[in-house]
Amino acid sequence: MSALRLSPVVQSLKPSATLAAAAKAKDLKSKGINVYDFTLGEPDFITPANVRQAAVAAMEAGHTHYTPSGGIPELKKAVCAAYKRDYGLDFTAAQVLISNGAKHSIHNVIASLCGPGDEVIIPAPYWVSYSALVELTGALPVIVDTSEASGFCMSADQFRNAITPRTRLMMLNNPSNPTGATYPVDQLEALARVAVEHDIPVLSDEIYEKLLYAGAGFRCFASFGADVAARTIIVSGVSKAYAMTGWRIGWTIGPVEVIKAMDNLQSQETSNPCSISQYAAVEALNGPQESVEAMRCEFEKRRDYVMGRMRPWREKFGVTFAEPGGAFYAFFNVNSSFGKPLAGGHTVYNATDFCTALLEQAHVALVTGDAFGAPGYVRLSFATNIETITAGLDRIEAFLAG
Ligand SMILES: *Cc1c(COP(=O)(O)O)cnc(C)c1O
């Protein structure tokens, strides 16, 4: 046996399925094949010019050193000001921690609150990393399946019924990746009441808060009163709203004790997030917000186009879906095509094989719902240009038609 024995927890870790699907698509592309890639979980736009310029200015001003581990005071202040401006909420800088992207924020929250034997309630379909990050701490993900009929929203009763004496955390993602679900305000408030009643902390991942369509509303989970805010840990960041995925800036807002613990952890594991990115994020939050709305409008056009194309698929192919109120994903059920001949002589029996056959046959890349705890479903990201969307949908249609 080699001395390079991996730890059991790392051995059990699966690679991110979305990144794996994107890698497969990239591999085909490198062979010169024109791939219609809908695996991307990030805006296709370039970061707004004012933000890019702020980064240059920060470098030129010499902001190239370590910063406080939990982020520069200017950015914490900008986060507080943004929540005041956008939602009328009052937070102090001591309640804010800046991390290396919202994914890092989520990891820090879970690592700070959970350990072996604890249970974490996660409504499915869920973002791929949630269950993996929970398992990394030795805690147990408790998956609550939501239905297409409910718009993929967990009810207060479902939440209540999943609670045990070992429950340490509930993780919510609103708007949701992969479903695009947006919680109606009364349903969100009902969840908040259950959290208070049973004293369960809630991690509310609100990274898609600025990407809302078709009259969908948004409420920050901490906005339902002081008793709710005392149990809420908000995670968000600049990646999706400002097209800043590569800059790696996310934040957590929560009770001071939790933030302090997370800062301790972060000071040992990564130190501060990139100094230059932090200054760029200050400009993103404090500067003009028009680019956020311009990108949202473009996403909404694509969403409307995709939905317009997909609605006839219900009757034609038995494809089912709930229309997304936010984020940039169409999430649809293709199990009516299982066991039937598809184009190119393919027959598939699950969503993972569906995606593989679709990629081989039609050179269209989607992500399997199996990765999100949603068998039978596939995820299409419309964060790509309309030409690719049009041609890709044509090809999916031809594949389904057999
Ligand atoms: C993209 C995404 C994140 C985190 O993005 P970062 O780039 O790490 O800030 C978090 N949650 C969900 C659901 C996402 O889709």
Can you give a write-up of this model?
With 402 residues, the protein is of the alpha/beta class. The chain folds into two domains: 8-46 and 291-401, Aspartate Aminotransferase, domain 1, CATH 3.90.1150; 50-287, 3-Layer(aba) Sandwich (Aspartate Aminotransferase, domain 2). Helix content is 43%, strand content 14%. It is built from 14 helices and 13 strands. The chain has helices at residues 8-12, 17-30, 49-60, 73-87, 102-113, 128-136, 156-162, 185-197, 226-229, 256-269, 275-286, 290-317, 351-362, 386-401, and strands spanning 36-37, 96-99, 119-124, 140-145, 167-173, 202-205, 232-237, 250-253, 320-321, 329-333, 364-365, 367-368, 377-381. The strands form three sheets. It has a seven-stranded mixed β-sheet, with helices on both faces. Strands 9-10-13-12 form a four-stranded antiparallel β-sheet. It has a two-stranded parallel ribbon with strand order 1-11. Strand 6, helix 9 and strand 7 (232-237) form a beta-alpha-beta unit. Helix 3 crosses helix 11, helix 4 packs parallel to helix 11 and helix 5 (102-113) packs across helix 10 (256-269). The radius of gyration is 21 Å and the shape is globular. The termini are far apart. The model has no long low-confidence stretch (mean pLDDT 96). Pyridoxal-5'-phosphate (PLP) is lined by residues 41, 101-103, 127, 173, 177, 205, 207, 237, 239-240, 245, 250.
Number of helices: 14
Bound molecules: pyridoxal-5'-phosphate
Q: How many domains in all?
A: 2
Do you know the CATH architecture of the largest domain? 3-Layer(aba) Sandwich
Largest sheet: 7 strands, mixed
